[in-house]
Amino acid sequence: MSGVRRALRDNGLGLAFGALFLLSLLGQAISGLFQYNDQQVEYGAEQVSFLQYVTSSSFAVDVAENWQSEYLQFFLYIFGTVWLVQRGSSESKDIEKIGTESDEDQLAGEHARADSPKWARYQDWRGELFSRSLGIVMGTIFVLSWGAQSVAGWAAYNTEQLGNREDPVTWLGYLGEPEFWNRTLQNWQSEMLAVGSMAVLGIYLRQRGSPESKPVGAAHADTGETG
Amino acid sequence: VRSVRALFVAYLAVIGVGLAYFTLIGLLGR
């Protein structure tokens, strides 16, 4: 197998979803432009170009509001699954393993192996930080993208306010607007349902070959066994 | 292994640039 083919196979998941992300984002930009210009015609305002649209707060808030909810979902899932279990779920660990587990279970500190990451060995702040790095990064991306949603949404909201000859609001004022919370919560509700479904539906349903599922023949009562 | 690390860095870069970009657009009030 050539080096390129091997690199493609070894990174199939990350590359495929990266490509799907870019295609979907392009599709969102194109359809969003058409919708935006339809509205502009309705209001008797000037139509905008593709470049003007993708540099507008209207586009930015639409992207950011979806980002924040996805990262909130994974952040909650990553931290939640440390402390919460679901009997029978492939997404859950064993019922007895609730919590952050021992260093022995986690191959941390003095139980680190020869090929363990260097920071897994440290028993100071570096070990503490590395052992929570996934959740910290996902949580940080959530907070930053929610922040991006708030400022882009604020700018888009004020553009609309001015178009309607109404007063602009402050950023804090926008955080109290129903629009901000409607944009936020309409995304959260679907993420929470989807996450709950992942945890619960996998108890009785299977997907052969997927690590997100238990093996086809695993008992419904088996918890935390991935296929 | 090099390609795996490049993919990891690319993901973080896309997310970081995206967040900075959307925030900037909002702050500029465009």
If you had to describe this structure to a student in words, what would you say it looks like?
The complex is a heterodimer of chains A (227) and B (30). Chain A is mainly α and 227 residues long. Chain A has helices spanning 3-10, 12-42, 50-54, 57-83, 103-106, 118-121, 125-130, 133-163, 171-175, 178-201. The relative contact order of chain A is 0.12. Chain B is mainly alpha-helical and 30 residues long. Chain B contains 1 helix and no strands. The model of chain B has no long low-confidence stretch (mean pLDDT 95). Helix content of chain B is 90%, strand content 0%. Classes of the chains: A mainly alpha (227), B mainly alpha (30). Chain A binds chain B through residues 7, 10-11, 14-15, 18, 55-57, 59-61, 63-64, 67, 141, 144-145, 147-155, 158-159, and chain B through 3-4, 7, 10-11, 14-15, 18-19, 21-23, 25-30.
Topology:
The complex is a heterodimer of chains A (227) and B (30).
Chain A: H1 3-10, H2 12-42, H3 50-54, H4 57-83, H5 103-106, H6 118-121, H7 125-130, H8 133-163, H9 171-175, H10 178-201
Chain B: H1 2-28
Q: Which descriptors apply to this entry?
A:
heterodimer, A: 227 residues, mainly alpha, 0% strand, B: 30 residues, 1 helix
Q: Using the CA coordinates, give the radius of gyration of chain A.
A: 23 Å
- How far apart lie the N and C ends of chain A? 27 Å
Order of helices and strands of chain B: H
- The class by helix and strand makeup of chain B works out as mainly alpha
Total number of beta strands of chain A? 0
Number of strand segments of chain B: 0
Strand content range of chain B: under 5%
Indicate the multimeric state: heterodimer
Give helix and strand order of chain A, one letter per element, not per position.
HHHHHHHHHH
Secondary structural class of chain A: mainly alpha
Mean pLDDT figure of chain A: 96
Question: CA-to-CA gap between the ends of chain B?
Answer: 42 Å
- Most extensive chain-chain interface: A-B, 29 and 18 residues
Q: What is the percent of helical residues of chain B?
A: over 70%
Major beta sheet summary of chain A: none
Strand content of chain A: under 5%
- Rg of chain B, nearest Å: 13 Å
Helix count, DSSP H or I runs of 4 or more residues of chain B: 1
Described by the principal axes of the CA atoms, the overall outline of chain B is rod-shaped
